[in-house]
Amino acid sequence: MLKLYTIKIKTELLLRIFKNEKFFWDLKQTDYIVEKLNDLVILNEEIESAYNKASNELKFADNVAFSKQSASQRNKFIQVLNKELKRYDENNEMQIVLKRRFHLIRTNFKQQVKIGNDLDFLSKVYSNELLCVNKYDELLSQINLPLSLCRALLKQRDIVQARIHLIERGEPIVAAL
């Protein structure tokens, strides 16, 4: 009888340990998702800022119109991503912990997404959009993402990817507006 009781206690103990490991795994995955969502928000903010600056500096009307349209579209992306981020990080605990990391990421993205003049406008847009698609794919590759987050990410990634395909085909980018 004592042996059976000991086995039952060990089984219960193992179940508790397994549940706690699963809980910690879920926390680690949630932290990773919050981190990657923040990266996407920062990237979209920097691309929006680059498009806004470019619309003031560019001379060709088509490029200016495209920049303004893209900046407003990025603003909408940011709003959707921030809503999804609030679902994961309700207490803003990760925001405090990762503040320095976000500053470094923002600085890195700022250097990458800078748009210069009308001559290299299309190539910079292409490289920015490609960088963005890669970041979306990185987050979408995670297992057990909520459906609402997957939908939002896929919708945004598809819009950006459609723009990339227009540039690759050599079609005028204003036609996409």
TrEMBL record:
Coiled-coil regions listed: 37-64
InterPro entries linked: Ferritin-like (IPR012347)
Top-level taxon of the source organism: Bacteria
Keyword Coiled coil: yes
Entry keyword set: Coiled coil
Designated name of the protein: DUF2383 domain-containing protein
Species this chain originates from: Seonamhaeicola algicola
